[in-house]
Design the sequence.
């Protein structure tokens, strides 16, 4: 029997393997990864500095332990070069591996800005443990850190860096932080709370050049101002990694196109996690990934299943200003209704009498469970 092959050992790949083993302990399983296969939670990378975590301390199990736990062969530091969905083969490090079913759990890649200047190539991104190791090494002893991007990941890193004693400046075109998730009142509450812990903001503009300045950097902004930093981190967002899927002739759009059973356009080929566009939507968060993994495990075990998301609020890891948001679905009708006081902001996205989403900051996050119940009742 040819094995099920999973490409990727991130949270999506390992969660799927664990869920599959609950239903099927026999079918051979091979996992392929370009890194060392250690298990860690990628969402924890953005708040590891304040907790004093080194890269090694973020790994909860190495590849050997994971292989034993899930009864799988894990091929580490292995690059997949080609997929043949007709022959049901994967070529990796020059070797041909036959599969019965194939799962792409390859995640997402950081979006790279088209920056100019001799320091542009030195701008860091953090999307893996290897990335975090480089970032961790460079911020040791660095006083000033510029974070490009005032979105979820940028704000989480900014709060973490400030808490760890760094002088942080956040730069981006948005009028307020978390502009894609929060209404203005909630975004401004985040800005004010993070300002209170020392974070500076350069909003309504973008970085055009990064120039080396001795052992530091000079960032030239589109509004004519400058920011000086010892380390520059770009956190402007991720895009689904569709490169292998495209080479294999799979249908791709914003992500690898799959249906409710996580099936791609090719027979016996599936995708989940940050790389997958499920029923037309890409959801790069943990809770959707977990639901996808449970569904796909059932499908691979021969059971009837389809993705059915419950309400999935997102907690933003900004301790200076706790945030919980359940964004309305794209295209939802309605408008934000906002209540704000000195303790927090409660914003509800309402369509007539129906609650379609919410955003809570500060003490208002205590309303989370009640609002989740309202969403679940729709």
Sequence:
């Amino acid at each position: 029997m040819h094995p099920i092959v999973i490409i990727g050992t991130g949270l999506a790949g390992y969660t799927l393997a664990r869920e599959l083993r609950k239903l099927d302990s026999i079918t051979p399983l091979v996992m392929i990864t370009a890194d060392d296969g250690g298990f860690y939670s990628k969402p924890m990378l953005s708040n590891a500095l304040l907790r004093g975590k080194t890269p090694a301390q973020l790994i909860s199990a190495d590849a050997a332990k994971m292989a034993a736990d899930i009864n799988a062969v894990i091929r580490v530091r292995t690059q997949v070069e080609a997929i043949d969905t007709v022959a049901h083969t994967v070529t990796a490090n020059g070797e041909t591996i036959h599969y019965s079913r194939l799962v792409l759990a390859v995640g997402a890649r950081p979006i790279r800005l088209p920056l100019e200047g001799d320091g542009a190539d030195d701008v860091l991104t953090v999307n893996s443990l290897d990335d975090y190791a480089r970032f961790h090494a460079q911020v040791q002893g660095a006083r000033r850190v510029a974070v490009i991007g005032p979105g979820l990941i940028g704000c989480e890193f900014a709060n973490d860096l400030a808490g760890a004693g760094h002088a942080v400046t956040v730069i981006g075109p948005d009028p307020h932080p978390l502009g894609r998730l929060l209404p203005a009142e909630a975004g401004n509450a985040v800005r004010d709370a993070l300002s209170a812990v020392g974070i500076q903001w350069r909003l309504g503009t973008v970085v055009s050049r990064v120039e080396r300045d001795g052992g530091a950097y000079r960032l030239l902004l589109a509004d004519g101002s400058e920011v000086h930093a010892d380390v520059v981190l770009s956190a402007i967002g991720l895009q689904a990694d569709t490169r292998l899927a495209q080479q294999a002739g799979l249908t791709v759009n914003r992500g690898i196109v799959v249906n409710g059973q996580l099936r791609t356009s090719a027979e016996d080929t599936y995708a989940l996690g940050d790389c997958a566009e499920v029923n037309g939507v890409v959801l790069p968060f943990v809770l959707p990934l977990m639901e996808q993994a449970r569904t796909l495990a059932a499908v691979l075990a021969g059971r009837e299943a389809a993705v059915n998301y419950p309400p999935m609020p997102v907690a933003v890891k900004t301790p200076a200003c706790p945030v919980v948001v359940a964004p309305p679905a794209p295209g939802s009708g309605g408008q934000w209704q906002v209540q704000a006081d000195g303790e927090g902001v409660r914003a509800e996205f309402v369509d007539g009498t129906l609650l379609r989403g919410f955003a809570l900051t500060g003490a208002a996050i205590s309303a989370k469970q009640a609002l989740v119940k309202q969403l679940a009742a729709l």
About this structure: The chain has three domains: 4-108+238-300, 112-234, 322-376. Helices lie at 11-23, 63-70, 129-139, 152-163, 184-196, 243-247, 286-300, 368-376. Residues 286-300 form the longest helix (15 residues). The chain has eight helices and 24 strands.
